[in-house]
Design goal:
Elements: H1 9-23, E1 34-38, E2 41-47, E3 50-64, E4 67-77, E5 82-93, E6 98-108, E7 113-122, E8 127-136, E9 139-148, E10 160-170, E11 174-184, E12 187-198, E13 207-213, E14 217-228, E15 232-241, E16 248-257, E17 265-274, E18 282-294, E19 301-312, E20 326-335, E21 339-349, E22 361-370, E23 373-375, E24 378-392, E25 406-422, E26 428-441, E27 446-460, E28 464-477, E29 490-492, E30 494-501, E31 507-516, E32 526-534, E33 537-546, E34 551-561, E35 570-572, E36 587-589, E37 599-608, E38 612-613, E39 616-623, E40 630-638, E41 643-654, E42 664-673, E43 678-687, E44 691-700, E45 711-719, E46 725-736, E47 741-742, E48 746-755, E49 758-767, E50 777-788, E51 792-805, E52 812-828, E53 837-850, E54 853-854, E55 862-869, E56 874-880, E57 885-891, E58 898-903, E59 908-909
Antiparallel strand pairs: 1-3, 2-3, 3-4, 4-5, 5-6, 6-7, 7-8, 8-9, 9-10, 10-11, 11-12, 13-14, 14-15, 15-16, 16-17, 17-18, 18-19, 19-20, 20-21, 21-22, 22-24, 23-24, 24-25, 25-26, 26-27, 27-28, 28-29, 28-30, 30-31, 31-32, 32-33, 33-34, 34-37, 35-36, 37-38, 37-39, 39-40, 40-41, 41-42, 42-43, ...
């Protein structure tokens, strides 16, 4: 069938997707999800007993899971489960971030493989061209291939590239090429039978380190990558220590993908390393892991299994109890229609433990978990676990006293959860629950955690309800193991009754009371709550009362009188009579009769039997014509003392005249604490939303004995933060009310401006004369600037500080100037292209003077640098003229800079060679 092109694209896509669903393209637990994004025609065919779906159009786009397919014609073979992209097409792999472009690409949905002719593969760091290319999970294969890491630079020709008869790419790991030619600027230079190029994975890079240690002598560490077939990647680990016996250590690290049937992944890390000087033999580190799946005939999913074997000896002391210990962890899980089963084996081999184990050993453990059973309102879930365990002893278990720090015994655990819900009569809900956990041990001990509960709720008129609940909770027994020991014993039978009612409109009242039948005489108090939400009153209150002792345990309330809509009248127009309703006259209503719509009053307080009455806080707030304008005053009174502990005001006012050209906004707060005489406040005046004047203070009206000031006062003026250009000027510091002046004031200022490619930041602090500060001097200055042009940039920061040592007038000034750093950079290259090299000059140095005398008279120490950046490779050279140090390093894609040599005054350091004297 071929829908006409005039139909809407959305309808065509819906028909195409429906047809694919009918063919089962989207079905099956193991199938990949395919979605049609755009297409024109859909055709169904039967060819040689195979079902074909032909999707065509000017621009066909499909989504295979997260991958994107684009072509002009796609043939889906439902029998073989393959997608054939006829003609020029592209395939975007989301997982590997790779683009494949070529002719007649074939996608195998089941195996997630792709093959094609004249294919171009590209990602963030690599470009590969091949006459024939095949992509399978974790690997790319190409014949007649050309590859380079310079493609992303955009320069032609490529700085270096390789041409090979056959190549294999392990994304993110390495590229292996056979019979390869090395090309420089696309000109053949020499031939290599095999070439291995590391990619982005830093842990898989080849490494060769030669060093010299005071104890071990000369040392060598070499990591050499290798591959076995198409599924195994590894690294050979070689270690050499001159003064150890033996001197050579060997190891291997490998990862294998699906090497055998029913095996998905194998990881191995094994290293036999010579023991430290003074000891003989080897220390062994081992980490072996296997993951896989085994099909089962009647199971709903494959059996999943995993095996981990670990041992860590390297770096452990000879007396470490973990030396020589090998841990084994095996687990297998199968899932059937009626239940799931799990088998676990966790054990340790080696020296027997002399201290308490930190883990639980299961040798073995079996878990059977039937599927939950439901029938109407009844549901039940059971789970059984049994095994032989070794773990830390529970010190509270008397039956196993004297067994040592650990104990081994069998253990059976049964858990179940049963619930039942029903509606016994109209507007009633009944809920019953039972949870149980029982553990039974080979020592004869047992533990029980039993919980039974029931709740009945009766509703009246939808707003009123009556609830009765009862429970029986029992926890008893002592476990011989510490890992599942119960926190204690429990026996209780709480019964509770609660009533929730709405006696009148906008009023909610509730009462709840509970009693434990096994606890006497202490009981939970009865709780009363009252909530009112009827304008102008909003009230929330709660009280707890001990009915047996007839005492009030606690009480709290929060009440507000406010109604901003009190002055508004809502008019309901008259309604004429109808056949079913009489006529209604017009009515006028208002939310409340609150006389002051702009005024709100709030009060809050509390009481507890132990602490007595809490503080009472009363707040009055007057709102202005603008919603954001308000003035609020509050008083807090300590009822126990009694005394006023805090008086405060808050305000936010804005000008109502010429709010656009001359807008003003004043905001602030003030709080007085009469018992301590502390006054804390701030005020901010903002003009046009851009400039602001601000003052803050924190003063004690009565100075603390021994203090030299009463607190601090600050004044500032400047621009509101967040602008590209902003400035601020501030004056203030400690202030003495008794002497009437600042003791150690300071004037500080800052200026910051930012433009594209440019920034400037200035700040300074000046100590001004005060009651305890006689001098006017610059205390700190900070200048930071950056300027970037197309091929030139300059940046730097200079910080100046002055401190004084000694007492006035015999004190001395210590001045410091730090350059952190000054840097100039020039880009070199052809016009119209990005710079290929950068020359930098930097200066990072500090100067210090004491009473005007230079303390560190070293000459200037500039650093000259050269960086060649070609995207696919880079070189850095640095010359520190002051230290007479010269360094050169080179970098490749996916690698950090690797130092080639480091030359200093008295030594030469070449990383691949021992340190030369």
């Amino acid at each position: 069938m071929t829908p006409p092109r005039s139909r809407p694209a959305r309808r065509v896509r819906r028909q195409l997707l429906g047809a694919l669903l009918a063919l089962g393209l989207l079905g099956g637990a193991q199938a990949r999800t395919v979605k049609i994004i755009s297409a024109d025609t859909l055709e169904l065919r039967q060819v040689d007993g195979q079902e074909l779906v032909i999707i065509a159009g000017e621009s066909v786009e499909l989504r295979v899971d997260d991958d994107v397919v684009r072509a002009k014609r796609v043939e889906f073979n439902r029998t073989r489960r393959t997608l054939t992209l006829v003609g020029a097409a592209s395939y975007r792999s989301a997982k590997d971030a790779q683009d494949l472009r070529g002719e007649n690409l074939v996608v195998e949905l089941g195996q997630e493989q792709i093959s094609g002719e004249d294919v171009l593969i590209s990602d963030a760091a690599l470009e590969i061209r091949g006459a024939e290319v095949e992509r399978i999970p974790g690997q790319l294969r190409a014949t007649g291939g050309y590859f380079t890491t310079c493609a992303r630079c955009g320069r032609t020709p490529n700085d270096y590239a390789f041409r090979a008869e056959r190549l294999i790419v392990y994304p993110g790991d390495r590229l292996v090429a056979y019979r390869a030619q090395v090309l420089l600027a696309d000109v053949p230079v020499f031939f290599l039978p095999v070439l291995v190029l590391p990619l982005n994975d830093k842990d898989r890079q080849p490494r060769l380190e030669i060093g010299r240690d005071a104890v071990d002598g000369y040392t060598v560490q070499a990591d050499l990558p290798f591959s076995i077939g198409s599924s195994t990647l590894g690294t050979t680990l070689l270690r050499y220590y001159q003064n150890r016996s033996p001197s050579v250590g060997l190891g291997v690290e490998l990862r294998s993908y699906a090497p055998l049937p029913y095996v998905d992944r194998v990881n191995l890390y094994a290293l036999a390393n010579p023991r430290p000087v003074g000891q003989s033999g080897y220390d062994v580190d081992l980490n072996f892991g296997v993951r896989g799946r085994i099909p089962l005939a009647t199971a709903t999913r494959d059996l999943d299994y995993s095996l981990d074997v670990t041992r860590r000896d390297i770096g452990r002391a000879a007396t470490d109890p973990e030396r020589g210990v090998t841990r084994v962890n095996f687990s297998a899980r199968a899932e059937y229609p009626l239940f799931s089963a799990e088998f676990n084996y966790v054990n340790r081999f080696g020296p027997p433990p002399t201290t308490a184990l930190g883990e639980v050993l299961a040798t073995p453990e079996v878990v059977v978990d039937p599927k939950p059973y439901t029938n109407g309102g009844l549901s039940a879930d059971f789970r059984v676990k049994a095994g032989l365990y070794t773990a830390r002893v529970n010190p509270l278990a008397r039956s196993v006293a004297g067994q040592g720090p650990n104990i081994t015994t069998s253990r059976l655990e049964e858990q179940h959860a049963i619930s039942y819900t029903a509606k016994p009569w109209r507007d009633a809900d009944l809920t019953l629950n039972n949870t149980f956990t029982g553990r039974y041990y080979g020592t004869g001990a047992r533990t029980v955690d039993l919980r039974l509960s029931g709740q009945l709720t009766q509703r009246f008129n939808t707003t009123n309800s009556f609830t009765v609940s009862a429970a029986y909770n029992r926890i008893e027994g002592t476990s011989p193991f510490a890992f599942d020991a119960l926190s204690g014993r429990l026996l209780e039978a709480p019964i509770s009754v609660s009533v929730n009612t709405v006696p009148v409109r906008d009023v909610n009242f509730s009462v709840s009371s509970s009693r434990n039948l096994f606890v006497r005489p202490a009981q939970q108090p009865t709780t009363f709550t009252l909530n009112v939400n009827r304008k102008p009153l909003t009230l929330s209150s709660s009280a707890t009362v001990d009915l047996l002792d007839k005492e009030l345990d606690s009480f709290s309330f929060n009440a507000t009188l406010a109604d901003p809509d009190a002055g508004k009248v809502t008019v309901t127009p008259a309604q004429p009579a109808t056949a079913t309703a009489p006529a209604r006259p017009a009515t006028a209503t208002r939310t409340s009769r609150w006389p002051a719509p702009k005024l709100s009053l709030t009060a809050s307080g509390s009481y507890t039997k132990e602490q007595g009455p809490g503080p009472l806080t009363v707040t009055a707030t007057v709102n202005g014509d603008e919603r954001s304008d308000f003035f609020s005053a509050s008083v807090t009174h300590a009822m126990r003392t009694p005394e006023i502990t805090a008086v405060g005001v808050r305000y936010n006012l804005s000008g109502t005249r010429d709010t656009v050209l001359n807008s003003l906004r004043l905001s602030g707060s003030e709080t007085l604490n009469p018992p301590t005489g502390q006054l804390v406040g701030d005020a901010t005046l903002t003009w046009r939303g851009r400039y602001e004047f601000k003052t803050t203070h924190n003063l004690r009206l009565v100075r603390v004995p021994g203090a030299t000031d009463s607190g601090t006062i600050f004044f500032s003026v400047g621009t509101v933060g967040g602008a590209a250009t902003n400035w601020n000027l501030s004056y203030g510091g400690p202030y003495d009310l008794g002497r009437g002046g600042f003791t150690r004031p300071a004037l500080t200022g800052s200026f910051n401006t930012t433009r594209p490619g440019q920034s400037l930041s200035l700040s300074a602090a000046v100590n001004t004369p005060g009651l305890d500060q006689p001098r006017l001097e610059l205390a700190r200055a900070d200048v930071s600037a950056a300027w970037n042009a197309e091929r030139f940039s300059a940046s730097g920061r200079a910080i100046y500080t002055r401190t004084r040592e000694g007492t006035f007038p015999d004190d001395k000034a210590r001045d410091r100037l730090s350059l952190e750093p000054l840097r100039f950079s020039v880009g070199l290259g052809r016009a119209g292209q990005p710079p290929g090299a950068y020359v930098t000059l930097g200066l990072r140095q500090s100067f210090e003077w004491l009473d005007g005398v230079r303390q560190n008279p070293q000459p200037l120490s500039p650093v000259l640098g050269l960086t060649i950046d070609r995207c696919c490779w880079a070189l850095q050279a640095e010359a520190d003229l002051g230290l007479r140090r010269f360094r050169v390093a080179v970098g490749l894609p996916g690698q950090t800079y690797y130092p080639l040599f480091d030359l200093e005054r008295d030594r030469v350091n070449v990383p691949l060679l021992p340190t030369l004297p």
